[in-house]
Write a structure and sequence with these properties.
Blueprint: H1 5-10, E1 18-21, E2 32-35, E3 49-53, H2 61-64, H3 67-73, E4 78-82, H4 92-101, E5 105-108, H5 114-124, H6 135-158, E6 164-172, H7 180-196, E7 200-205, E8 211-217, H8 220-241, E9 245-251, H9 258-274, E10 280-283, H10 287-299, H11 303-306, H12 308-320, H13 324-333, H14 338-345, H15 349-363, H16 370-386
Parallel strand pairs: 2-3, 3-4, 4-5, 9-10
Antiparallel strand pairs: 1-5, 6-8, 6-9, 7-8
Helix pairs in contact: 7-8, 8-13, 9-10, 13-15, 14-15
């Protein structure tokens, strides 16, 4: 079923929540919930989303005078502001703009936790299923594999060791909700990233704005390392441009049918949809892990918000335009290997050490504690797959 802002109010789903401006827009459908404690940019909020925020900084009219108009322009369904922590009341300029634009503004009582709000809304929201990969599109992908496979096998035969060959399927998640030029730019960035980080690369654009890639790497391990970095790339594209992608992958074994590899890659894509990821990558061998991960998110969707170390770093990066969260992602993904992390980030080892010390200083995170690192790794994955 679909749910509107009007449903929340009439059914009293959240006692104490009230519309305080933009009441003519309360029939707007809620497609998802986006949380932004510091509302620094509307670019990360997608059409149809209800933005939930503490309103930090909204009392600065000079800084936020265009915030509500930009949200309305992007097709955001409304904003829910919790007063009592950072602002005592919703500023009058917000209310005036919302009334003028028919943009619903909800006042959330202080006693209602974000965790409770999320748990309830996630159970109520029913996403429409995405279009399946049709036989015609799969035939296009299969044709590319059949025509290009001899080339990658010949290249692999000339190497000292046989290369690991992979099939990748790429599809946009919210294609109709962004400008065509934005999607073209993001798709080309993904295309260039995969090509630059593969020993062999062939790609083809398919119907419905999808792509298929046939690539190879010296080992499966080197592919999986690139695959995780591609996942981070998806997060950054989402944050910068509002464009979300799914990518499914499978290793193409020499004794297996290309059709089987394509089928497995499609199943990996379906897993991302099943767990309701906002964006992300899925390797066929990781499907069971991602299903468990999706269950963790549904049962305890406040993990990211409750991780104060991560929230402090995210807020510090937003305010100071630094990239400490990205440094931490790469460091943890490389099993805290200084040399590999410094090489991947193009940093001198001493610069990396200084950054990690700064991360510990800012967030009070103990990087020498295994459980702290594990907690942060899980929180970062949840953030990258489900937040924004």
């Amino acid at each position: 079923m679909s749910i509107t802002i009007q449903d929340l109010l009439q059914q009293k789903i959240f006692p104490g929540v009230a519309v305080v401006a933009g009441s003519r827009g309360i029939r707007n459908e809620i497609l998802w919930i986006n949380i932004m404690e510091i509302p620094d940019t509307p670019k990360t909020v997608q059409p149809g989303e209800l933005l939930l925020t503490t309103g930090y900084g909204l009392d600065n009219e000079c800084l936020y005078k265009d915030f509500i108009p930009e949200l309305a322009k992007r097709g955001v369904c409304g904003i829910a502001i919790q007063a009592g922590y950072y602002i005592d009341a919703i500023p009058p300029y917000i209310l005036d703009q919302a009334d003028e634009l028919d943009f619903p503004v909800l006042l959330v009582p202080k006693k209602l936790t974000f965790s409770e709000f999320l748990h309830t809304m996630i159970r109520m929201i029913d996403h429409k299923p995405k279009r399946d990969w049709t036989d015609a599109i799969l035939e296009q992908a299969h044709a590319l594999l059949l025509s290009s496979l001899p080339d990658v096998l010949n290249k692999s035969a000339t190497e000292e060791e046989q290369q690991s060959i992979q099939v990748l399927l790429l599809e946009p998640v919210n294609y109709t909700q962004a400008e065509a030029a934005v999607w073209q730019k993001c798709q080309m960035e993904i295309w260039s990233f995969i090509q630059a980080n593969s020993s062999f690369f062939v790609g083809e654009k398919l119907s419905q704005n999808r792509c298929v890639f046939l690539i190879s790497h010296p080992t499966l391990s080197s592919f999986l390392s690139m695959f995780y970095r591609l996942s981070i790339k998806f997060t950054l594209l989402s944050e910068d441009f509002g464009a979300n992608y799914y990518l499914g992958a499978e290793e193409l074994r020499r004794d297996a049918s290309p059709l089987a590899a394509i089928s497995h890659a499609v199943e990996a894509l379906a897993t991302l949809q099943l767990i309701k990821a906002r964006r992300g990558v899925c390797f066929y061998g990781h499907i069971e892990f991602l299903k468990i991960f999706g269950q963790i998110h549904r049962k305890e969707s406040s993990i990211v918000l409750d991780n104060q170390h991560l929230q402090i770093l995210l807020n510090y990066d937003r305010v100071n335009r630094t990239n400490y969260v990205q440094t931490l992602r790469v460091y943890l993904s490389n099993n805290c290997n200084m040399t590999q992390t410094a090489r991947q980030l193009f940093l001198h080892r001493h610069t990396l050490i200084n950054r990690l010390e700064k991360i510990e200083e800012i967030s009070d995170l103990r990087l020498d504690d295994y459980y702290s690192r594990l907690h942060m790794s899980i929180s970062l994955l949840l953030h990258d797959y489900f937040v924004y």
